[in-house]
């Protein structure tokens, strides 16, 4: 059985986290079978090669129309990559392990980001195995020869405990251990992760009850009590359930798109550098946005009809509604903008950073996080103002990605990327590093493979986003909230 890391040449870092994927299958009434022997095969797609490789298979469930599979797939999750998945469903009517011997029933495609970004972390077509039963999540060590045992602290992922459902029932059984394995049942209690979490910085006390003893003894109260305490450490995945959207893109519109030498040249046979950068990063970010509506702006252009220079204008041409539908909509608006505006300098960053910062300033409760993507081919013309804008934005729920395209020298961009020295302005330092800058030329595949070039860019430029998001949440004491149902999702305005 192959893992992602075994065939993906780009996966050379520790994954952000492990994702547990469980599948079920609901057969439509029109299927001409009373029951079948079901198995689901998961394939993952290699970056650049686009080759589908088998990752694993579920167990075979016999004689059922609606199998709920127990075997899970544990995938390495990389926020900065588009991880394509394919689920193939078969009827196993042969003892052979060769898939070609099975009856193929159908397949479905999605990305790992789509699963994570779905409401409750469940993609309706593939995630659900609720059957009302309990699965063992953890066993403590045995504490011998005492009526008042104290067990060692242990760590368990919220995913493993309740699959991200804070109100799911968690049952705790208590036994008197016997060497021969015939442990005596003392009692049990039920709770939930939400109830557990109320014990942070304090303790919860639960009564351990034995139903049989309670039925036999009128004076029975309980079999004892269990005292619990909890401390939580979040990952990007659980924080994301509160941040129902991430934002946006901007293109620097300078140059002459009618000339083949222009970085904006609209070649009918391949994407230009701007489009490649936008598509590479945007296709990954859009999986985490709930409504896929992206406000998209351009800067550095003369606008019709009077030729006024603007450094933050909607690519859609509609000042009242700058939204584009999906990244494909942003690309369409970008190309349309090239046909209607006159590209012009200078390259000013601060106006758009301040514009997104004003939106981020209104939602500092953890319900939204903004990602501003800026694509430029020139040197920053307002460096002093840009540094001040970055310092101010560092206190807000936002990150800034800058992609430099073309042969220009981007020395000033490195100063904004605060990996080595934190950005400062007027004696104030940014409270956290929120800028990631990369020159696209460093990621271009020498053989001309645009898909591989885009994958390399996205992988590097998005790598810091989860930690930046977590850092903001933790410094503000914002705790993740349970996933909302689709009817409860807030109507949020996004910038891209």
Automatic annotation (TrEMBL):
One of its GO terms (cellular component) is plasma membrane. The keyword Repeat applies. The keyword NAD does not apply. CDD domains: C2A_Copine, C2B_Copine. Residues 1-127 form the C2 domain. GO terms for molecular function: calcium-dependent phospholipid binding; metal ion binding. InterPro entries: C2_dom, C2_domain_sf, C2B_Copine, Copine, Copine_C, vWFA_dom_sf. Keywords: Calcium, Metal-binding, Repeat. GO terms for biological process: cellular response to calcium ion. Coiled coil: none annotated. Belongs to the copine family. This is C2 domain-containing protein.
């Amino acid at each position: 059985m192959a893992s992602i890391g075994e065939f993906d040449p780009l996966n050379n870092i520790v994954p952000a986290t492990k994702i547990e994927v469980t599948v079920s299958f609901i057969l439509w009434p029109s299927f001409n079978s009373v029951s079948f022997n079901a198995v689901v095969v998961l394939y993952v797609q290699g970056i650049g090669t686009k080759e589908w490789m088998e990752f694993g298979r579920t167990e075979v469930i016999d004689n059922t129309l609606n199998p709920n599979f127990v075997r899970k797939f544990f995938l390495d999750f990389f926020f900065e990559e588009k991880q394509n998945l394919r689920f193939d469903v078969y009827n196993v009517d042969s003892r052979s392990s060769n898939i070609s011997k099975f009856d193929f029933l159908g397949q479905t495609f999605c990305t790992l980001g789509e699963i994570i970004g779905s409401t409750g972390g469940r993609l309706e077509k593939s995630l659900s195995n609720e059957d009302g039963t309990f699965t063992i999540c953890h066993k403590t060590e045995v504490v011998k020869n005492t009526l008042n045992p104290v067990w060692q602290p242990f760590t368990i992922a919220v995913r493993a405990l309740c699959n991200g459902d804070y109100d799911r029932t968690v049952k705790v059984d208590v036994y008197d251990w016997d060497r021969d394995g015939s442990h005596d049942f003392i009692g049990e209690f039920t709770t939930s992760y939400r109830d557990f979490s109320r014990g942070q910085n304090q303790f919860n006390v639960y009564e351990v009850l034995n139903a049989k003893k309670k039925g036999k003894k009128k004076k029975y109260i309980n079999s004892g009590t269990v005292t619990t305490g909890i401390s939580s450490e979040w990952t990007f995945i659980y924080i994301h359930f509160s941040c129902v959207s991430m934002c946006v893109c901007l293109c620097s519109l300078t140059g002459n798109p009618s000339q083949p030498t222009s970085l904006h040249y609209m070649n009918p046979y391949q994407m230009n550098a701007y489009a490649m950068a936008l598509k590479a990063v945007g296709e990954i970010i859009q999986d985490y946005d709930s409504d896929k509506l992206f406000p998209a702006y351009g800067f550095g252009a003369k606008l019709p009809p009077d030729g006024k220079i603007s450094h933050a204008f909607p690519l859609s041409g509609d000042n009242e509604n700058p939204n584009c539908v999906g990244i494909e909509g942003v690309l369409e608006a970008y190309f349309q903008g090239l046909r209607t505006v006159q590209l012009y300098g200078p390259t000013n960053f601060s106006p758009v950073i301040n514009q997104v910062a004003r939106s981020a300033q209104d939602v500092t409760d953890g319900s939204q996080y903004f990602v501003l993507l800026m694509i430029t081919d020139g040197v920053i013309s307002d460096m002093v103002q840009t540094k001040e804008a970055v310092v101010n934005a560092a206190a807000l729920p936002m990150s800034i990605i800058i992609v430099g395209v073309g042969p220009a020298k981007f020395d000033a961009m490195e100063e904004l990327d605060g990996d080595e020295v934190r950005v400062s302005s007027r004696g104030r330092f940014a409270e956290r590093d929120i800028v990631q800058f990369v020159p696209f030329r460093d990621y271009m595949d020498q053989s001309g493979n645009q898909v591989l070039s885009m994958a390399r860019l996205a992988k590097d430029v998005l790598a810091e986003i989860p930690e930046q998001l977590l850092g903001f949440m933790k410094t503000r004491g914002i705790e993740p909230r349970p996933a909302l149902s689709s009817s409860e999702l807030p109507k949020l305005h996004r910038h891209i």
